[in-house]
Amino acid sequence: MSRPLMMERLGRLIALTLIAGTAAALATTVLVGFAPLLRAKVGWTGATRTAYSAGQAIDLPAGLYSTNDRTLVVFASGTCSACLKSARALSGLIADFRDSGTRVLIVTPTTMVVDQESFIRGLGVAPSQHVSMDTSGLRLKIVPTTVLIDRLGKVLYAREGLVDDAGRQAIRLAVDGSRS
Questions:
Q1: DSSP 156
Q2: Which residues, at least 6 apart from 86, have a Cβ–Cβ distance to it below 8 Å?
Q3: Domain ranges (residues) in the chain
Q4: Looking at the predicted structure, is the pLDDT value of residue 82 above 60?
């Protein structure tokens, strides 16, 4: 083998090694950097978290719900595929409860690095119906999670996961049942 051919092959080998090493380092950086995003996706379960259930007190600041008879809290994110799939049913819920005395509050995690405003605008909620907060200390297991609470913060109904038309109907029945 001639010396120029050996040098060319050695150069290619070094270039490929550098590219592979850079790609591996970049992949590691991306995965570590996106860890907060991954944990708020549908299906992620934290080791110390439990689901919301009827009769429990919700772990949200009282100022977010204590002025209404009922508050429908929807934990969602514009980066969550199930939340995006749920958007039509969630928009319908928001429209259903607009004048019913049930406040709808959309809570988005602050750990998300994307702008949530376009997702919120798409749901048709007023800025006063949205709060972005650190949800890492809550008992929240997955997004979307929909929780109906009374003015004392007691959970009346909870639904985890995708909100479809059947889920929308179940939430509506829970709100109607809580009025009596």
A1: E
A2: 76, 144, 162, 163, 164, 167
A3: 3-33, 62-178
A4: yes
Helices (H), the chain: 3-33, 35-39, 81-97, 117-123, 165-178
- Give the global pTM: 0.67
What's the CA gap between 80 and 77, in Å, rounded?
Answer: 5
Look up residue 11 and give its amino acid.
G
pLDDT for 92-139, tens place per residue? 887 878 777 788 888 988 776 566 777 888 888 888 888 888 888 888
Are residues 118 and 94 in contact, defined by beta-carbon separation less than 8 angstroms? no
CATH code of 62-178, in short, is 3.40.30.10
Length of the chain: 180
Under 8 Å between Cβ of 72 and 171: yes
In the three-class reduction of DSSP (H, G, I as helix; E, B as strand; rest coil), residue 55 is classed as: coil
